[in-house]
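User: Can you fold this complex?
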Amino acid sequence: MERRKKFFLIGVLVVLSLSLVWSGCGKKETTAVEGEGNTGEVYPENGLPKDKKVTIDAVFPVTGYGREFFNFAIETFQERFPNVTVNVRWFDEGGDVYKQHFDALLQGGNDDEMYDWIYSLNPDLIKRLAESGKLERQDDLWGRALYDTPESKVGDVLLTDRKALEIDGHIYAIPSSSTIYGLYYNKQLFQENGWNEQPQCWDEFVTVCEKIKAKGTKPLVMAGKHPYYFMYGWGAIPHEIGGEAFYDAQYNYEPDVFLSKPYLTMLRRMEAFVKKGYLHPGTVSFDHVQAQMEFVQGEAAFITNATWIANEMKDVTPAGFQWGFMPFPGNDPGQQQVILVGNAQSGFIWKKRPTLQKQWTKEFNLWLLNLDVQLRFAQAGGVPIRKDFVTIGEKDLETISPSVTSALEIVNAEGAKLVDDSVRKRSITNAQMAKLDKVKMDGYIALITGKKTATQVAKEMNNQYKKALAEER
Amino acid sequence: MAEKVQKASFFRSKAFFIIASLAPILLFYTLFSVIPKITAFYYPFTEYDGIGEPIWIGMKNFATIAKDADLWAAMKNNLFYWVIATPINFFAALFVSFILVKKPYKENNFYRILYYFPAILPSVITALMWQFAFHGRYGIFNALLNAVGVNVGEFYWLTNATAAKWAMIIPMVWGGWAGNMLIFMGAIQSVPESLYESAELDGATDVQKLFLITVPVIWETMKTMIFFSIIGLFGAFELILIMTNGGPAGATEVVGTYMYKIAFGAEGVAAFGYAAAIGLILFAILGCVSVVAFRFMDRGEAIEMAG
Amino acid sequence: MASNESGMVRKLEAKDVILRVLLGLWALVIILPLIWVFYTSLKTNQEFFMGAWQLPKSMQWNNYYRAWSQLGIGKSFFNTVILLTGAMVLNTLVVALGCYTLARFDFKGRDVIYWYIIGSYFITGLNTMVTGYILMRQLGLLNSLFGLIIYYGAGSIVFNTLILTAFMKGQPKELDEAAYIDGASYWQTFWHVGLPLARPSLLTINVFNFMRYYNDFMDPLLFIRDPEKYPLSVAIYSMSQAMTYRADWVTLFAGFVIMMIPTIIVYSVFQNYITQNLNIGALKG
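Assistant: Here's the predicted assembly.
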C-alpha cells in the first residue's frame, strides 16, 4: 500500500512539473498603454511631446566600424531631445552572435523582448519580416526635411534610388551608410614597382598580375575559408559582362542564372586566374586574419575586402602603407566597370511596440543622416550615404578613413557603375535554398583548388538553384 | 490526535524521505532536460524559417535528407574522425595513465597536471595555433619535413582536401585524450596494489601487468568510456568549424558544421526545420548504435572474470 | 617505491629512459604552445601580424591592462562568482540528495528512476536551443542570474548522478544503520553521515561543474539579455568574436591568459583529488 502511494506521488510530481511549463504560457501580456491627453509642449520639428520621457531600445552589432560613431549619434540626439533616452544592447561579438540572439527573439515570438530600433539584418530576413507585417513602414521619412539642413529632404540627398529600398512598394528603413567592395592594395608598393593602378579590363588586369608574380609576390589573397569574400571582388564580373539583364535575371529569380554567360565568364576567369598561379596558394585555408596577415606582410598585392578594412587594420599596417582601391577589372574592353556596394539598410522598427517609442525611433533614424554623424561614420570606415557630404569641408574630409577616401576617389573619378548585388524581388526560404549557399561556396573552392572545372561548378550550382525554385512553387 | 501522530510518522517515514529526496532531482531533470527535448520533436516535421509559426510539412524533410548526398558525406567524415581519433585518444590515455600512476618517475606529478592543459585551452587559441602550424611558409610541419630532408615547398596543408582531412586529426588528438587520461588515472589508482605485487613475483612485464591486471579490473570504467565515445560520434565540430569551416570544398565537413550552415546560413536562409530533422536522424542513429553497443558490451562481462 | 630496488626494475632501465624521453617530448609539445600563447600576449598587434612566431621586441604589459578593462573584470567577475556559487550549491544539493536515495535505499522502481535520468545519454543530437529558450521564458527565468543558476544547476544532473551514485554505492551502509539506531531521522542521517562521507566525490563533481560553468558562454548569451549580468566567459567570447572586425589579437591573448588562470589553479590544486575519487564505474545502476 505504502509503496503504491509513493509512486503515485512521484507520478504526480512529474505531471506537476510538466503542467508548470504549460501554465506559464501567456502569463505575460504586453502593456503598451500610452498616456493620453498630453498637455505639454511639443518639438516644432516633429510634433512630439517634450515632457514625455521615452526610452528607445536599440540593438547594435559592433562591426568593423566600431561603436564610436553610433555613440556619437546617440549623445547628440539625447542632447537635442533630453526627454529621450536611447538604450543600446551592443553586440561586440559581431554579426554571428547578433544573428543567433535575434533568431532566439524571433522564435520566442514575444514583442516585449524585442527592440524598437533594429540594426540591419540580412536582406532576406528583412524581406520575410516585412512581408509578414512585423516591421513598421517608414515611407514618410523619404519626404521629411533633414535635421541639420532643413532646406533639403531625405529623398533629395540620399545616394540611392527609392526603388532599391522598397519591399512591396514600401520603405522599411533608410540606409544610413554604404559599403564599397572591391580590391584593396598598398599604393606605395605599386608605385615603387611601377605597377598599373588602373587596369581598364580583364586583360590589363592579367598583365598587372603577371608583373606582380614576376616580382615574386602573389597577386591576390582572399579569406578563402569564408568564400563570400571572393564575391566582394569577383562578384562584379557578371554585372560587368551581363549588365542590366543579369541584374534583372538575378533579381527576378529567372531560371538558369548560373548557366548564363555572365556568370560562367566569372567562373572561367576565376579558373584561368588560378591556373596562371596568381592566387595565393594558401587562400583556401585562410580566414579573415590570416589573409590580412599575408597582405600586410607584403606577400600578396591585392586583397578582396570592403571599405572598413583600413579602420579594422589601423593598428597593424606598417609605416608608409597607403591604401588604394580598385574596382574589380573583370570586364571586356569597352564595358563599364562595376563596383559592388552594400547599402546596408539599418534602423528597422518593430511594429508591435508602443507608439511613442516607434515615433521617436523614426526620428532617430532621421538623426543618423546628419552630416556630423555621417562624418564620424566615414572616419570609422563607412561610406557616407549623403550626396551633399562633400559640403562638410576639406578639413573634415581629411580625417576620414583612408580606405574610404581611396574608394570614394575612384567612385567619383571613374564613373563606374554602382551595383547592390543583394537585392531580390522576394524571399525564398526552404531547405534547398539554404543548401544553395553551401553548394556555391564549395563550388568556388572546388574551382580554385582545381578539383572541378568552371562548367561543372556552374552546373552543380544551377541544379541546386533549380531544386530551390521548384520547391517554392 | 491519532491522525496527527500518523501524519508525523508519515513525514518521518522512509517512504516520505525517498519521495522527498527524489522530487527535486526528478523535477529539475524533467523540466530542463526532458521537456525541451520532447517539445523539440515537433520541429523536424515543419518548415520553419525562424519567424512566426512553423509550418507542418509531414515527412518532407526526411525525404530531402534521404537524397542529401552532402549530409551523408558529412556523416562519413564524422565516422572517419571517430575511427581514427577515438582509438588514439583511448589507448594513448590508457598507456600514459598507466605510466604516470605506476612508474616512479619524479616528473610524473608535474606531467599529471601539465598533460591536461590542452583540454583547458580555449578552442579559439588551439585552432589559431594549429592553423599557423599548417602554414605554407612558416608552418612547423613544413619545417619538420625540411629537417628530415623532405621539401614540399610552400605547401598549405589545409588547402588540399586529403591533407586537410588528415591534418585535422592532429589538433583533435592533441587536446582530445586529456579527459580520458583523467578518468583512467582515477581508475588505475583504484586497482589494489597487492594484485601487482603478486604478479611481480610471477615475473610479469609491464605490458602484461597492464593487460592482465589493470584492464580487467578497470573494465567497467572502460566500457562506460567506450560508450561515451560512441555517443560522441557526431561531436567533432568546434575545431573544424574554426579551422577549416568544413572546407576545402566539403573535405572536412562534419554533421555539426553542416547543420550549422543550414541553420545559420551565411546568406541568412534559415531552414531550422530541416536542421532539426537532421538532428532527429542523428538521435535515431545514436540511439540504435548505443543500445546495440550496450548490449554487446554487457555480453563481454565474462572478461571481467579473467581479472 | 621500495620495489624499485629489485633487480627486475633495474633491468628495464633502458626502457625507462625511452619512456621518460617520450614523456618529456610530449610535455614540450604542450609547454611550447603555452609559452607561445604567453609571449604573444606581450606583443604589439603589428608584430603579431608581421610574424606569428616571432618574439616581441619589448614586453607590452599594457595588453593585460586593456584586456582587464575590456573584460570588465570587476563586474563580470562578480557575476561569475555569484553564478558559479549558486549553481554549484544548488546542483550539489539536488544531486546529492537524489543520489543518496538511489544508492542507499532499495525500493521498487529505483532502477527505473536511475535509468530515466542516465538515459539522457542516449538522447543526443536534438537541438533544444529554441525549446529551451521558450521554456525559460515561460518559467520567467530569462535575463536573470537566478534563472541561469537554476538552468545550470539542472543542466549537469546526468553526469553528476552517474559519478555520485557509483561513489555512494561504494560506501559502507553500516554507518547509516548506526545513525538510525542512535535515533537519527533519515534527513539527519543524510546530512550528518551521507553528505560528509561523499565529500571527495562531491568535490570532484564540483571541479567539473566549475570547468563547465566557468567556460560556458552559449547559455548566458541565449538567456541573458542585459550585458550587465554577463559572466566572464561571455566577455572573453565577445572579445574573440570581435576579432573579425578588429585586429587586436594581442589583447585577446592577454584576455585568454587571464581567463585561464583560475582554471589552471583549480585544476592544479585538485588534480590529485579528482583522480583519486573519480570513479566513473559502470553505467548500470
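Chain A touches chain C through 46 residues (CB under 8 Å). Chain A has two domains: 54-175+344-368, 179-342+419-472.
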